[in-house]
Amino acid sequence: MRRRGFSLLLAAGALAGCASARVRYYRLAAVPGVVRGGDGKRIGVRNVGIPGDLDQNTLARPGDAYQLNAYANDLWAAPLASMLQTTMVRDLAQRLPADTVLQDGGAIGAAPDVYLEIQVLRFVPDASGNVTLQAQIGSRPGNTQDFKLQDFTATVQGGSTPEGLAAAMSTLWGQLADAAAGLV
User: Fold this and answer.
1) Strand order in the sheet with 130-141
2) What sign results for the dihedral spanned by CA atoms 115, 133, 93, 98?
3) Contact at 8 Å (CB) between 99 and 42?
4) Which of 42, 85, 97, 111 is deepest in the core (most CB within 10 A)?
């Protein structure tokens, strides 16, 4: 009987050693910016385009130019492209309080006066923990194909922790929202 109890204790200990690390979920936060007022437009923020290598649920961690590293148990709370779109809506609503900012393709289907379109080209940390956002922002009236296009590039130190990187990405996304508010 003693032997059986000891065996069960060893088996439980072995299983406890196999337990995986706790999974942590992160999201981008809206970052306050300069309030511009707006002029009563309805702005539709379209789906955000992201490169295929960022279309994953893990957070990218610092690495070199030829390798995309990711944290094993630190995940985005939602698909990154969706989270970027939602956060841009919140950022723009704060910056343009006289305008109505809607998530294009969301539950509210009001036709926008202007569409905001964003294509992310790069949004990862380098080996030193600097996060660079390189993107293209397009703005066009809802009833024409005329558009304005602006390139955007900025870098912020994010460090080497998932918390620092998510904060740096939120800051950069807020800076992109400042540029977008000026474009629409």
Assistant:
1) 100-103, 42-45, 114-125, 130-141, 148-157
2) negative
3) yes
4) 85
Domains and CATH numbers, the chain: 2-183 (3.40.50.10610)
Distance separating alpha carbons of residues 131 and 111, to the nearest angstrom: 35
Residue 183 sits at the vertex; the CA angle it makes with 120 and 144, to the nearest 5 degrees, is: 90
Q: Is the pLDDT of residue 109 over 80?
A: no
What integer best gives the mean pLDDT of the chain? 88
Read off the pLDDT band of 103 (50, 70, 90). Answer: very high
**Alpha carbon distance 138, 141 (integer Å):** 10
Q: Calculate the CA 17 to chain-centre distance.
A: 34
Asked if 123 and 173 touch (Cβ cutoff 8 Å), the reply is no
What's the CA gap between 31 and 173, in Å, rounded? Answer: 8
Tell me the two tokens of residue 30.
């809206």
CB 68 within 8 A of CB 53: yes
pLDDT in tens, 133-182: 999 999 998 777 788 999 999 999 998 899 999 999 999 999 999 999 99
pTM beyond 0.90: the answer is no
